[in-house]
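Homework-ish question, so no full write-ups if that breaks the rules, but can someone show me the predicted structure for this set?
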Amino acid sequence: MAQILIDGSVLSASYALIALGITLIFSIMRLLNFAHGELFMIGAFMVYYVYGAWHLPFVLGLLIAALVPALIGACFEKFLFRRVMRVATREENSMLLAVGTAILLDNVALFLFGEEQHGVPETISGVLQIAGGFLPYQRLVVVVMSLALIALLLGFVQFSRPGRAMRALAQDRDAALLMGVDVDRTSMLGFAIGAGLAGLAGGLLVTIQGVNAGIGVDISIKAFIMIMIGGAGVVSGALLGALVLGFAESIGYSALPGSETYLLIFVALVLFLIIRPQGIMGHPWG
Amino acid sequence: MRRFSALIGFALFAAVMLIAVPLALAGQGYWLTVLTTAALLAFGSLGVWLTFSIGRINIAQGAFALIGGYVVAILGTRYHVSFWLSLPLAVLIAAAVARLVGWPILRLRGVYFAMITLSLTEVASLAFLNGGSFTAGASGITSIPRPALLSSSLSIYLASALLLLIGIALAWRFAASPTGAVFRSLRQGEELAASLGIDVARYRLLAFVVSSGMGGAAGAMFAAFQQNIFPTSYTVNDSVNFMLYCFLGGLQSVAGPVVGAFLLVIAFQLLSVIQRFQALLYGIFMIAAMLFLPNGLMSLPQVLAARRHERDAVVPPR
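A: Not a homework solution, just the prediction itself:
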């Protein structure tokens, strides 16, 4: 029981980074970032190379894991999405573009990084014992850093000037433009931060789960599940979704073998969506 | 007039598919297989096109292809049911599943629907993986008996071509009928359609069920011809590809998904050097299409005409 709670908290904390990133992009751009899992995977590979293969400090690896996806995200926004969202005649266009970027990153990663599964050595060894459950220090590091990053992000969005611009943009793009918000720059920054969060989540989780070039789709699907549970474009919904999915996974994996857990999660999700199609915190079709 | 020229186009395409190709490629099994693949993928994409016409982004076609394939595989290997009986059964079962899951998930729109259908592809794969001895798990079902009457690659090709022609006729009929008009009205606004007395829930379910039945048929044919099926035979990437064919060809006309599928499948056979980069190029095509040809290849003449018009326009003196 204690073990389930511990595993659930570890998963929830790092999943929250993924969910917050995709929510940030969704609320600012009205765009579902299909490449989110791929950005996660790239972040994980950055830590693998910098820390695992070249034996440089883990923190440096994390920094690069945030910067590289952020740069990719910023380029996507500046060169692809901005143009397509301006000229699109059907709302599907920007979404299919997002699918295209996901396929692109998936295959570039396969080409650059190969197919094998990679892991990294622990940053801290040792296990903490709480109430009959085991919490390796490595996982404690992941939880603490995830929570710190979440707090940092929420603070940034709430209090900083660019953060306020992002919230204004999420509320009403035209009004934000009229109030003198640099919409293009703020969108680019938002996309970069969202992508960077995905990369950071990957960089943190690689120490627990390892990485291979094929995990992108799985992570994207997890991100989608979380925002379907919580409601798209709502910060509190993203956090709730992460909490629900993290604990559902830890309970499922302790009771069931293999991939049956996800089958059940999907069934539960569909049943849940019958009752509440917009998610727990979402606005209907907002 | 437009209708007439479309009819001529269809007749020409049918003549090429059923007469010219068999005459020209009778002995070349390899190319017949390529065209069979293109025809079946085009057929599956037509279904996705139908759901696009009600304004939904359907990334679940892989799931229904998988269901159709497994129906044929299980009936053929365990119960020795003839392919010609299990094919319609595969369509019916895929359609029944679509009816069951479609009712709740079709209430979702836009990105929500895209997300849930994408997940559905993953669910189908997981379900067959965890099906125990019934679906044979990860090892899949192999040595599915060849369908009676379809022993040569030529006959297999003809069956697929025929199926595609029926599919085109069906999709065209749908698009031209009052039902097609209702579908388009759903794309423009479900509330407005509902306010006009249209039973929105029924029509969107109809589109999804027909689409999924077509996916089931394509999967059933593939399984029977390749004589095997695995939980990973159709992944999220395949579901996305069905969508890509539609988009590359263009969503405006029935010909779109057919053009898209044939062009991509044949192009990659001709350029075998780049086959290694197939998936990568698919991604690039998709991005390029969205950037430069958001309405698909079928809109190329219009785009070029508009460009020419722009160039030839007289610049007023300042």
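Now go work out the reasoning yourself. Hint: The longest helix of chain B spans residues 200-226.
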